[in-house]
């Protein structure tokens, strides 16, 4: 979420999805033999990826179509009729969202039995125990905010009205953060007047028609290791950028480290990737010995498939990650917003396991030298809904943005041994 994170993450995704995605391509999806063009950075540069290497390219609607091997002359056509068939894509094209897009999100299902039956989901008393299905560790509930009542518990959280990221195009407002019906509700709106938000000291204050909100637990609830999780209903559509993430307490970013447990950008991007059915997770950190010149400089995206080449570098900021994806939702207009889900991180001294509804989709080794401070000291939690920027894209009704949007959190829990 910080600064050039948006830029980095787009690059990072291109690098990391190869190793992190284990889902087989859905039958009928466009895993074509043709190379696909995809984004390499938020500046719109394009690169060509080799075919077949990235199964998540099912999310890409290529403009390539099947053509006969040999250009057909009229004579050949009469002798050998090769039926031309277009590739059938399951993902919608840009600006052509499914007819029933977002329909289910308007009336999300009640908490599913799947979630109710998950270990720990129904436990809300501090001291309650459950055994992690990931590491078989028995944890105790150390912190829970169930968002009962009508006001934010400021013993746990602080309203944050500055921007976390230079790329954000929305203004955080306290008014957009509410507690109602048992949930934290952060609303993303398009206002009828512009608001100006204070920004980081190095940034020009933002003035925007788009408003969102943010809270953090800095100085109030900070943890090292354990299970950090939320039960949430995400917003959807183009330009939305909700997140559940953390930053290290002892030093500023990036030295303190950043953990993006859930980061989501909605809608269909300019490269035709349908994103309402996936969210991203990842880390951004640097070696504690780096000075300002290197720590803030061009980050290095760690390629998990070739770890030895870069894993132990300590001369630049680094990032790595992966994503959770529900393939096949898009064809039905489905979004992650259709149901409540538990997004969480199990953080041990050796590894980070990112899970959705207790299913691990990403594991990251945190024993590397460069991580010796970033991921072995206290972090505080952040919940926010911002809009716009180079990654999420500027909200635009013509691109499918639906107003207003809500990022709802039923509870936040931290479990520790
Ligand atoms: Ca609740």
Oligomer: single chain
Summarize the amount of helix as a percent range. 10-25%
Q: State the secondary-structure class.
A: mainly beta
Low-confidence stretches: 3-92
Task: Give the N-terminus to C-terminus distance in angstroms.
Answer: 29 Å
Q: Biggest β-sheet, characterized?
A: 19 strands, mixed
Strand content: 25-35%
Summarize the structure.
This protein is mainly beta and 417 residues long.
SSE blueprint and pairings:
Blueprint (H helix, E strand, L loop, with lengths): L4 H16 L15 E4 L6 E4 L24 H6 L23 H4 L6 H4 L12 E3 L6 E8 L12 E2 L11 E2 L4 E4 L2 E15 L8 E11 L5 E2 L2 E8 L6 E9 L9 E6 L14 E8 L6 H4 L4 E2 L5 H4 L7 E8 L15 E7 L3 E6 L2 E7 L13 E9 L1 H4 L12 E12 L1
Attribute tags:
Jelly Rolls, disordered N terminus, mainly beta, 417 residues
Description:
The chain is mainly beta. It has one domain: Jelly Rolls (Sandwich). The strands form two sheets. The protein has a 19-stranded mixed sheet that branches. The longest helix has 16 residues. It is globular, with a radius of gyration of 22 Å. The relative contact order is 0.22. The N terminus is likely disordered. Bound molecules: calcium ion. Calcium ion binds next to strand 21.
């Amino acid at each position: 979420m910080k600064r050039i994170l948006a830029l980095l993450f787009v690059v990072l995704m291109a690098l990391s999805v190869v190793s992190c995605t284990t889902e087989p391509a859905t039958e009928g999806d466009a895993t074509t033999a043709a190379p696909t063009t995809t984004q390499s950075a938020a500046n719109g540069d394009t690169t060509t990826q080799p075919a077949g290497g990235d199964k998540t390219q099912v999310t890409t609607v290529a403009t390539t179509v099947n053509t006969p091997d040999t250009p057909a002359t009229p004579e050949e056509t009469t002798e050998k009729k090769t039926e031309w068939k277009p590739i059938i894509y399951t993902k919608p094209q840009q600006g052509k969202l499914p007819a029933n897009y977002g329909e289910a999100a308007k009336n999300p299902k009640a908490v599913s039995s799947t979630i109710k039956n998950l270990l720990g989901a129904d436990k809300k008393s501090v001291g309650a125990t459950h055994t992690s299905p990931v590491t078989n560790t028995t944890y105790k509930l150390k912190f829970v905010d169930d968002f009962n009542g009508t006001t934010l518990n400021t013993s746990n959280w602080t309203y944050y009205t500055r921007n976390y990221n230079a790329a954000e195009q929305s203004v955080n407002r306290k008014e957009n953060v509410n507690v109602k019906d048992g949930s934290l509700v952060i609303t993303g709106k398009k206002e009828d007047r512009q608001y100006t938000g204070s920004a980081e000291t190095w940034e020009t204050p933002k003035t925007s028609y788009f408003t969102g909100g943010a809270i953090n637990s800095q100085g109030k609830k900070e943890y090292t290791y354990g299970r950090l999780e939320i039960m949430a209903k995400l917003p959807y559509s183009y330009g939305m950028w909700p997140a559940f993430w953390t930053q290290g307490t002892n030093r500023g970013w990036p030295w303190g480290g950043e953990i993006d447990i859930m980061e989501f950008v909605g809608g269909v991007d300019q490269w035709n990737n349908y994103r309402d059915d996936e969210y991203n997770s990842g880390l951004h950190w640097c070696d504690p010995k780096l000075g300002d010149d290197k720590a803030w400089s061009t980050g290095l995206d760690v390629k998990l498939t070739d770890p030895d080449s870069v894993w132990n570098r300590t001369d630049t900021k680094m990032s790595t990650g992966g994503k959770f994806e529900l393939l096949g939702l898009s064809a039905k207009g489905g979004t992650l917003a259709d149901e409540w889900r538990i997004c969480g991180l199990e953080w041990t001294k050796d590894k980070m396991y990112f899970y959705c509804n207790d299913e691990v989709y990403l594991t990251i080794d945190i024993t590397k030298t460069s991580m010796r401070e970033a991921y072995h000291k206290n972090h505080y939690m952040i919940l926010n809904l911002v809009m716009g920027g180079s990654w999420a894209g500027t909200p635009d009704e013509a691109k499918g943005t639906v107003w207003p949007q809500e990022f709802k959190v039923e509870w936040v829990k931290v479990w520790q041994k």
